[in-house]
């Protein structure tokens, strides 16, 4: 569950730390949402899914459901770097991520910087 742990730790951090995990040109809010969606694929693995308690699955689902509820074109205002730092929605997501960390018994630490290739479309 490396990906889900990484992104949960990343979402739990204050915005300045979140920004430090990605290149300057990245839309961090969007990147975190994409990382979250990719990480959820880990939970489709029967071995991983069977290792989680109902409480752990519920905590992950709560954050996922919340993200989905504020997604889409009508909610674009929540998916930029300003919202990442200033919106109540991102504060809510941070709290939910911290809840997941506690329930999973994972440390609330700054995860390693993403080692990925980004293409900047100016």
Strand-helix topology:
Elements: H1 2-12, H2 15-20, H3 28-40, H4 46-50, H5 54-69, H6 81-86, H7 88-104
Average pLDDT: 92
- First-last Cα distance: 34 Å
Query: What's the count of strands?
Result: 0
Largest sheet: none
- Main structural class: mainly alpha
What is the C-alpha radius of gyration, as a whole number of Å?
Answer: 14 Å
Which word captures the global form? globular
Task: Please give a structural write-up.
By secondary structure, the protein is mainly alpha-helical. The chain has one domain (2-104). Helices cover 61% and strands 0% of the residues. It contains seven helices and no strands. Helix 1 packs across helix 7. It is globular. The model has no long low-confidence stretch (mean pLDDT 92). This is Phage protein.
Question: Brief description of this entry?
Answer:
This is Phage protein. This protein is mostly helical.
């Amino acid at each position: 569950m490396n990906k889900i742990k990484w992104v949960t730790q990343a979402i739990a951090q204050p915005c300045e730390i979140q920004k430090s995990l990605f290149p300057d040109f990245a839309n961090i809010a969007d990147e975190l949402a994409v990382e979250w969606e990719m990480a959820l694929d880990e939970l489709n693995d029967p071995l991983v899914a069977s290792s989680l308690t109902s409480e752990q699955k519920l905590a992950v689902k709560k954050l996922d459901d919340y993200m989905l509820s504020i997604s889409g074109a009508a909610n674009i205002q929540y998916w930029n770097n300003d919202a990442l730092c200033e919106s109540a929605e991102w504060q809510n997501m941070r709290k939910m991520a911290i809840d997941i960390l506690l329930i999973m018994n994972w440390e609330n630490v700054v995860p390693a910087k993403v080692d990925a290739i980004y293409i900047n479309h100016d």
